[in-house]
Amino acid sequence: MNTIIEEYINKLNREEEKNIIIDFLNFIIEKYPKLKLKISYSIPMFLINNKMKEGYIGISTAKEHFSIHFSDEEFILGLKQKLIKCKFGKRCIKIKYNDDESFNIVKENIKDFLIKNHYTN
After folding, report:
1. Per-residue model confidence as pLDDT tens digits over 25-50
2. Which residues partner with 36 through β-bridges?
3. What are phi and psi of 28, to 5 degrees?
């Protein structure tokens, strides 16, 4: 990870926030190494190509949950039936910190999101 991302992680107050961010970033970096990682809108974000309008995946933290952000609302709507424990916001899935099942479902479906948005690994 680059220095900007490390600084972002170090500024987080709680260990559970740091751990979930590191887990997600490492997962994406390992599985999809061509995605471009940067800080955008004050959160870590992976760009599918060079611009946000071409697709993105981001992650943010809050007190009770973390959110995985996708540029495609249809993709999120397609996951709603599988993620019955989660709440949803505009272009994001809100997952409680201890809900590993939902987090794994999201990670398992990222490949479908990337294929739909023309990512080639």
Report:
1. 999 999 999 999 999 999 999 998 87
2. 47
3. -65, -45
